[in-house]
Amino acid sequence: YERSALVKLLSAPGEEQEVMIGSSTPAKAIGVGGGNFRILLPKGSAVAVGDPIVFPSISPRIFGKVEEIESDASDTFERVYFQSPVNLFELRWIEILQP
Length: 99
What we know:
Number of strands: 7
Shape: elongated
């Protein structure tokens, strides 16, 4: 309709976004649904729980922080998990900006 829009959340399953962890670690965040994201990094990356995460293409402000780092001894990657700082299920209104 003329005054409606269909949108997809950044955290929708499979959606990929370029992020920056801390001030120097670029990565690709993959949405897993419900405002949650996963990042795959090489094992031994200099990332720690609490590190800030920014979506540089959207806003230079902090979008989240590293909540958990999961690593398996037999895997060469570690999984970094973070979530949106806002509970998406409590939002009533959003603003859609046109480029």
